[in-house]
Amino acid sequence: MYKIESKDVNLYYGEHHALKNISLQMKANTVTALIGPSGCGKSTYLRLLNRMNDLIENVRIEGTVLIDNKDIYARGIKIDELRKKVGMVFQKPNPFPKTIFENVAYGLRVNGISNKSYIEERVTRSLQNAALWEEVKDKLKKSAFELSGGQQQRLCIARALAIEPSIVLMDEPASALDPISTAKIEELIYELKDKYTIVIVTHNMQQAARVSDRTAFFYIGEVVEYNDTKEIFTNPKNQRTQNYITGRFG
Amino acid sequence: MTKSINQQIAFWILRIMSSLVVLFLVLILGFIISKGIGVINWKFLTTMPEDGMTKGGIYPAIIGTFCLVGGSMLFAFPIGVMSGIFIHEYAPNGFFKRFVQLMTNNLAGVPSIVFGLFGMSLFVNKLHFGDSIIAGSLTLGLLVLPVVIRTTEEALKSVNDSFRLASYGLGASKLQTIWRVVLPIATPNIITGLILSIGRVSGETAPILFTVAAYYLPKLPTSMYDQVMALPYHLYVLSTSGTDIKASRDMAYGTALVLVAIVLIANLIANALRKFLSKKVKMN
Ligand SMILES: Nc1ncnc2c1ncn2[C@@H]1O[C@H](COP(=O)(O)OP(=O)(O)OP(=O)(O)O)[C@@H](O)[C@H]1O
Ligand SMILES: [Mg+2]
User: Fold this and answer.
1) Edge to edge, what strands does the sheet with A59-67 contain?
2) ipTM
3) Which residue of A has its CA nearest to B185?
4) What's the angle, vertex CA B97, arms to CA B183 and CA B88, rounded to 5?
5) What is the pLDDT of residue B275?
6) Does domain A4-245 have CATH number 3.50.50.60?
7) B156, B88 in Cβ contact below 8 A?
């Protein structure tokens, strides 16, 4: 029924209790925005979903996280398979120092795909899906570093899409970009919803309101309120949510 | 006002100091070139020494030094780079890692003559290699191992973690991430380790003294168990204990010039390689 489901998740960085009893459900082909003041655990929650927290030392996790009804923290789960299914886009654009083409092809190559025409087709399709194709189709062999910040971020989205994930996690994907690039990314997120389930962290309230179907308000490690985005922004149930979205703190 | 005067003074002091460094470098080079250039010719570079090393060339010493540089790099470079990768990318933060790092640092501070003694007792005597290219190469290799390990570690440290995260996020394994993303970015800087090591190895006398260097051996090695002559030791012999020190003085300067030239050329080549690779890494 749900695409992503976390039940009573607690996460500790050493002694620090960073996520407290988080239970959230997300349906397929929806966009969920995670909002809340700095340090409240949004990125931590996002990294929970593709097990990126595993790379950090001294992390302890309790509770269950289900994706497609499978416990992703169960024994015997292949992490690389999980990360293929759950793509991630980071806050700062971080293309590899490789060509534009090789950046997008990277995920395919490390997953053992070597069929040249298939790779070419996937790279093209991914760049189209990331709304970047028209801008780069004549310079696929150029370094990714020659692109603008906004183009680099769309390249990173294309790179994530190339391995055909069903979920895309985005951690403040537009916070380092100018307004026009930001608008492009937002438009893109809206389009991607047809094919993907998207979870996006953002500090920008308008952005959350514009792109998301559901919004979760995090506050010091807890989810204070989780509801339809419209509800959260027009009729917040909790005083702290209201204070936050109206800019009274955070 | 006083601030800008202070600025001026600081600027000039720093500028004078750095000019002094350049001045000394130029002086040393100029001295060696002016003294040594006279004996340099094709024959000097390509023939055996003659007449108790007062005439002829230094061909076997050049070849010997090449053998030792090559041999020691063959040994130190793969081991050093792999250790560096292990320490930086794999070893968990903890006692073992800190211990290895401490040991590498200490190893780097051990005087080279001690390496010579150690090499003699282990490679020459215990392992019965005798005075040989292999014994000398292993000794020199040990000497530069810390340099290679440290520069590899530094090179890896300078690779931004965001590249690693991006790679893991796409389902790559640790090995794939290191091999396909981290190492290509780090390689130009790892080459710096190679440059430093080559410079160090080609100039060292003490470690080869008891392990490989021949006083006078007018023929080329045929296997790695042969002794060879080597430029730094030949230079030492010519200027302190040759058959006729006065008569071989010019040859000593010539030898010094060749040695310096080899190190400089190695640096230039490695630098060009590094530039080429760092340009290529962006394109891949
Ligand atoms: N690697 C880590 N090691 C230890 N503590 C961490 C680590 N990462 C995050 N934390 C702590 O966990 C809490 C949640 O951090 P997180 O990065 O998830 O916040 P966030 O909501 O994404 O904040 P921001 O909006 O500033 O990005 C913070 O108190 C932070 O200090
Ligand atoms: Mg964050």
Assistant:
1) A16-26, A4-13, A59-67, A70-71
2) 0.91
3) A97
4) 10
5) 86
6) no
7) yes
